[in-house]
Structures are given as C-alpha cells and as structure tokens.
Design a protein that fits this description.
With about 350 residues, this protein is α/β, with parallel strands linked by helices. It contains nine helices and twelve strands. The protein has two domains: about 110 residues, no CATH class; about 200 residues, Vaccinia Virus protein VP39 (Rossmann fold), CATH 3.40.50.150. The protein is elongated and about 80 Å long. The chain binds S-adenosylmethionine.
C-alpha cells in the first residue's frame, strides 16, 4: 500500500487525481466513500463524500497535504478501493483477514481528456453521483453516448452561472427553477455553488409532474442535498407569496409558462434571470401580417418567426423593467443548427435558447 499511497499523494499534488472510491465496507456502516479534488475559493481541497446505508450522504473537505495517508487508512476498512488518475488506475482488493491484492492499470482512453479549448466546470473524466442518478453518467463516470450533448449543455450553463455570480449575494443565495422537469440544471447549480464555490444556497424547483418531482426529491435526499427542494404544482397557482429569489431559472418552460416565470421574476425583484424559451405557440396563432405572408405561409418558418418575435418582445419588456438583457446560445457550437442532425426532433428545446441577466 505504501507505493500506492505515494502515487495517490503525487497525483493529488500534480493535479492528476480524478477520484478514489471505496466500496464494500466490512462493518457496513458506510455504503460507499469517495474522494476527489475540488477547488474552494481558489484553493484545492479533497472533497470526501460518504454515502450512508440510509441513503444520506455526508460531506467533508480535507486538506490536500497528507491526504493520501488518510485515504489509505480509510481504505483498510473496505473490500475494494478504486483509484482513478490521469496517468494510472489501481484496484485494491482486501480480504477481511487483511490479505491485499493491488492491480495497476492504464486510464481509460478518454478519462482525463477535456474537449479541446473548453474550460469545463464538470470534468468528463470524473464521476459525479448526481449525474449518475440523473442517467447522464454510468457507474464508472463515463458520460453515456446519448447524453454527451446534455453534458455539454450543463457545462455551458454552469459557465453562464459562473459569469452572473458577481450579481448574486455573496452567500445564502436563493434560486428558483420553475418548470424544472428532471432538474438537471438545478442539481448542477446546487453542486456548483455548494461544492465548487463553497456557497450556501437554497434551490426551489417547481413542476406540475408529480412523478418527476418525487423522483428528483428522492435523488436529492439520497445525495443528502438538503438545500434542494422540490414542489409539485402549477406555477400559475402555487408560488409562495412574498418570497424573493436571487436567481430565477426558467429553462424550456412550455409556451406562456416562460412569460409567467419572467413576470414573477420581475414582480419579485429577482437579481438575475436565466431563461431559455420553448415552443412559443401563443404568437404563432395571432400573426396576421400581409407584408410577412411570404414567411408565414410556410408553417415551419411561421413558427420560427413567432419564436423570434416572442423572444424579442420578452427582451424589450425586461429591458423596460430595468434589466440588462443579453441573448446568447447556451449550447456548444457543435450542437447548433449548423451541425443539424435530421434525426433530431424540430421541437428539441436545445435548439434556440437564450439567456437574460439583469
Ligand atoms: C420541456 S420541459 C423542461 C424541463 C427542464 N426545465 C429542462 O430544461 O430540462 C417543460 C416542463 O415544464 C413543466 N410545466 C409546463 N407548464 C407548467 C406549469 N404551468 N406549472 C408547472 N410546470 C409546468 C412541464 O411539466 C415540463 O416538465
């Protein structure tokens, strides 16, 4: 174990450690334990997560200096230890009587490779429990082929959240995600603000789909993320009076639900609104313009025109309410229409998002 302990410490010191996972604790008091390097206020620490038998997760940060000794000592309580670094992997198998077997290997081909030129917040080579639960990564941390663009979109979104952080309170940030659906982005925002930036954050997610809300609430409980709350209801009816979100999210909220979110955000004085629209039907059924009939006679073009006009109107209204307004893509260029895949549905909400920040 001495050689491996040195290798782990070296990997930590050189920024090459991806993850250490301990499983099969002999006394069954912990289900699984993992260690990964994370940056808190610009300083690297070792984030330890212990998944308990009741589904809760305990988190602690260790200093990087001497951490390998601590990890090695903890490893003695587990049947298996998996070490993943950029330049090596190791599997440690231990019997109850203490017999030890260590097997070294090479890292998976793409384990440590970030897409070129991308400053990703979530590393494609690292396993994130919330992404495994949400079906974006498999148990080893590999992003599923079909979820690659979702993974890129989450990362792009986190970069945008990073950009608006200076407009949010230093701590005690309140986030609302209305029409949250499976809440990929809320989980990611919670992870980013809590574990990467070290902020305290409360996220309220609302959707009318009871099964999806129950599933997400289960994941949050399993992760022990007690600042992440899920509420089942219609956003037109169930929003609490008098509450003020700092950051309002509305991502692909259907049709006029986006307008409802924007209106609530303005009324409540949200500091930042990040919104990507979805399926704007409202205006499409109302456009009557002889001069534009050469566009509106084509159903697809009419739909696109109404989407653009709807977004332009929303931007102007937000501007009139005192917000600084910016529209931008929050997906990778390789996922835009230039690389249009004819198998993708035209209504895929990933195609034309925009973002607004005060
Ligand atoms: C296209 S999904 C987007 C989900 C998620 N925000 C995302 O970007 O992955 C739209 C979601 O809005 C929810 N929704 C639409 N209108 C709603 C309303 N009035 N109240 C609550 N949820 C609503 C739907 O149930 C659905 O889950």
């Amino acid at each position: 174990m001495k050689d491996l302990t040195e290798k782990i410490q070296n990997a930590v010191d050189t920024g090459a450690l991806l993850r250490v996972t301990l499983s099969g604790r002999f006394d069954k008091t912990v289900k699984k334990c993992s260690y990964a390097v994370k940056s808190v206020r610009g300083k690297n620490v070792i984030a330890c997560e212990k998944l308990m038998p009741d589904g809760k997760a305990l988190h602690a940060n260790l200093p990087t200096g001497g951490c390998a000794e601590i990890i090695a000592a903890e490893s003695a309580c587990y049947k298996q230890t998996d070490v993943s670094a950029k330049d090596f992997t190791a599997v440690v198998l231990r019997s109850k009587k203490g017999a030890l077997h260590i097997k070294y290997g090479k890292p998976a081909a793409d384990a440590s490779v970030k897409p070129e030129g991308k400053n990703y917040i979530l590393d494609p080579g690292v396993r994130y429990d919330f992404l495994v639960m949400l079906g974006i990564q498999d148990g080893t941390g590999r992003v599923h082929d079909k979820k690659q663009s979702k993974f890129r979109q989450i990362n792009r979104f986190l970069q945008i959240v990073g950009d608006v952080m200076p407009s949010l309170p230093e701590d005690g940030i309140r986030v609302w995600d209305l029409c949250c659906g499976k809440s990929y982005l809320s989980f990611a925002v919670y992870y980013y603000m809590t574990y990467v930036l070290g902020k305290s954050v409360t996220v309220f997610c609302v959707d009318r789909k009871a099964d999806v809300i129950a599933e997400c609430a289960g994941y949050a409980e399993g992760l022990g993320w007690d600042g992440l709350h899920f509420i089942c209801g219609d956003i037109f009816k169930c929003l609490p009076e008098g509450e003020r979100p700092d950051l309002m999210l509305s991502l692909h909220a259907c049709d006029t639900a986006t307008d409802m979110v924007l209106s609530e955000a303005v009324k409540r004085g949200a500091r930042v609104i990040l919104s990507s629209p979805c399926c704007q039907h409202e205006l499409a059924s109302q456009i009557e313009c002889r001069e534009l009939s050469y566009v509106t006679r084509e159903p697809i073009l009419k739909q696109k025109l109404s989407a653009i006009l709807t977004d332009a109107l929303r931007c102007r209204l937000l501007y009139a309410c005192g917000y600084k307004v910016t529209t931008l893509e929050f997906i990778d260029p390789e996922d835009t229409e230039k690389s249009y895949d004819p198998r993708r549905k035209v209504s895929d909400p990933g195609e034309a998002p925009d973002v607004r920040a005060r």
